[in-house]
């Protein structure tokens, strides 16, 4: 099987395993907005982001090293997994010692025990799922994604819709779903056979930590980039010139981010397969051509997907966001188009990060993420002060865009591949024009959006067709 077909086959498996489950997760947005007020929805989002902030620190991001070294045939998988488990055990122990600090967070009041359980279960599942993928068990990995989401869906309905536990119910649902998923992988994949203290290897551990430790600030910085927007929108009510700040505005902003998650969903499915191919083909002689063709096709598909979502932003928002119980949610679509473009830029940055993983240059991933986080924080203070939620949306896009510019220059020094900047700029310009039209809703909106979509299809078709030809070639 050639490298293109292998990438397509893995992507198909991940898509089959993930697409239905991701749709269920998006449908949960209606459940949350129907049963949880805008203020409490903001609290839910902040707790979720806090857990995502803690996980890479508590686990030393060792799961990232598991996929990199687990796929490498030069290393014993038992040594890789046992060493990773020991690192994670130590990190979790230290986290528990310092957990009283979490009581200082105003929005975490009453939720700290559940937050710790959330982190423990998610870390357990993450390590197991990455090792399963490193062993090449992509079908099991995909099946687990389906089962985990189904269990999350059921637990959410039980705790939120039936028992009306609100934010507490959400935290309980995530904990139980991740714990069940981790145990399922441990038992079915027979991970106990790979965990044995006799295979703990100090040198392997040091090597994996050298790889993973720069990923800790990288993960944290990306979370800060997405996390800080909500914090500033929520807590700048007394300092902003805009009325679009406070608890309700933060809840609206969180709801507005649900539609762009469709872009993130597609990107994550592809990235899971692509990351494996990037590592496997790291030493191939034609890797530059391979990267060029895949990146060109991926970029074109993402621009097309973003274009369709911007054109359909209002009906998509109506489907995913239930404004019947809180009319404030009805405004969410106004902030969504630019967020879609921001998530598109984040997805392109994710693709480029695979080069840092494949070449083991994870420190580059750190400092490029640091640039994005700094830009985001500075712009949040200025733009949210001036324009509220609209300022947060603009700050998000600009920070991801700056990171993309830096990474596209830096990664091509490590693995050179052709990039057409004019094509990128024109695609981006069309998306912003469509965004303005979607927000302003002028006369002639529908024919204008249709014309833009036709242009995007024609303009991006050649890059996609070139890769398809390689896929069909024997």
Observed structural traits:
2 domains, mainly alpha, 474 residues, globular
Molecular structure report:
The structure is a single chain. With 474 residues, the protein is mainly α. It has two domains: 62-212, no CATH class; 214-474, no CATH class. Helix content is 79%, strand content 0%. The chain contains 18 helices and no strands. The chain has helices spanning 3-35, 38-59, 62-70, 77-98, 112-134, 138-162, 166-188, 202-212, 215-235, 247-256, 261-280, 287-311, 313-320, 336-358, 362-387, 389-414, 421-440, 445-472. α1 packs antiparallel against α11, α6 runs antiparallel to α7 and α17 (421-440) packs antiparallel against α18.
What is the radius of gyration? 22 Å
Q: Please give the alpha-carbon distance between the first and last residues.
A: 8 Å
Q: What is the typical, i.e. mean, pLDDT?
A: 83
Query: Per DSSP, what share of the residues sits in E-state strands of 2 or more residues?
Result: under 5%
- In the predicted model, the low-confidence regions spanning at least 5 consecutive residues are none
Overall SS class: mainly alpha
H/E element sequence: HHHHHHHHHHHHHHHHHH
Count of helical regions: 18
Q: Please provide the count of β strands.
A: 0
The helical percent reads over 70%
Characterize the largest beta sheet: strand count, sense, and whether it forms a barrel.
none
Number of domains: 2
Overall geometric form: globular
In summary, what is this structure?
This protein has 474 residues and is mainly α.
Topology, pairings included?
Elements: H1 3-35, H2 38-59, H3 62-70, H4 77-98, H5 112-134, H6 138-162, H7 166-188, H8 202-212, H9 215-235, H10 247-256, H11 261-280, H12 287-311, H13 313-320, H14 336-358, H15 362-387, H16 389-414, H17 421-440, H18 445-472
Helix pairs in contact: 1-6, 1-11, 2-4, 2-5, 2-7, 2-9, 2-10, 3-4, 3-5, 3-8, 4-5, 4-8, 5-6, 5-7, 6-7, 9-10, 9-15, 9-16, 11-14, 12-14, 12-17, 12-18, 14-16, 15-16, 17-18
């Amino acid at each position: 099987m050639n490298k293109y077909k292998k990438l397509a086959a893995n992507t198909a498996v991940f898509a089959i395993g993930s697409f239905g489950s991701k749709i269920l997760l998006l449908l949960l947005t209606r459940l949350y907005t129907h049963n949880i007020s805008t203020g409490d929805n903001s609290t839910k989002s902040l707790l979720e982001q806090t857990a995502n902030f803690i996980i890479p620190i508590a686990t030393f991001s060792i799961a990232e090293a598991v996929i990199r070294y687990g796929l490498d045939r030069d290393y014993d998988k038992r040594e890789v997994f046992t060493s990773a488990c020991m690192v994670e055990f130590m990190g979790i122990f230290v986290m528990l010692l310092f957990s009283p600090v979490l009581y200082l967070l105003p929005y975490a009041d009453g939720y700290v025990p559940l937050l710790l359980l959330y982190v423990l279960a998610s870390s357990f599942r993450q390590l197991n799922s990455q090792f399963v993928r490193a062993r090449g068990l992509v079908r099991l990995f995909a099946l687990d994604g389906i089962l985990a989401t189904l269990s999350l869906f059921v637990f959410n309905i039980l705790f939120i819709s039936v028992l009306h536990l609100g934010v507490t119910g959400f935290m309980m649902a995530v904990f139980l779903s991740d714990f069940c998923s981790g145990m399922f992988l441990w038992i079915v994949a027979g991970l106990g056979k790979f965990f044995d203290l006799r295979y703990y290897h100090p040198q392997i551990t040091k090597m994996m930590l050298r790889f993973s430790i720069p990923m800790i600030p990288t993960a944290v910085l990306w979370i800060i980039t997405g996390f800080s927007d909500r914090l500033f929108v929520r807590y700048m009510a007394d300092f902003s010139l805009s009325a679009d700040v406070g608890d309700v505005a933060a809840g609206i902003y969180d709801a507005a981010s649900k539609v762009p998650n469709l872009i993130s969903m597609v990107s994550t499915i592809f990235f899971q397969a692509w990351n494996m191919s990037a590592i496997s083909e790291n030493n191939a002689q034609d890797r530059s051509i391979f990267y060029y063709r895949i990146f060109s096709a991926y970029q074109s598909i993402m621009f097309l997907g973003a274009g369709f979502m911007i054109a359909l932003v209002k009906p998509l928002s109506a489907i995913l966001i239930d404004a019947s119980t809180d009319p404030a949610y009805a405004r969410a679509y106004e902030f969504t188009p630019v967020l879609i473009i921001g998530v598109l830029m984040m997805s392109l940055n994710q693709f480029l990060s695979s080069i840092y993983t494949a070449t083991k240059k994870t420190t580059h991933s750190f400092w490029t993420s640091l640039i994005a986080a700094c830009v985001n924080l500075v712009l949040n203070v200025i733009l949210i002060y001036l324009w509220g939620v609209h300022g947060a949306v603009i700050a998000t896009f600009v920070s991801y865009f700056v990171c993309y510019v830096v990474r596209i220059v830096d990664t091509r020094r490590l693995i050179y591949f052709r990039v057409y900047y004019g094509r990128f700029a024109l695609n981006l310009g069309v998306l912003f024009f469509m965004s303005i039209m979607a927000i302003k809703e002028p006369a002639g909106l529908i024919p204008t959006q249709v014309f833009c979509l036709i242009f995007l299809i024609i303009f991006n078709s050649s890059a996609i067709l070139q890769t398809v030809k390689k896929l069909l070639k024997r």
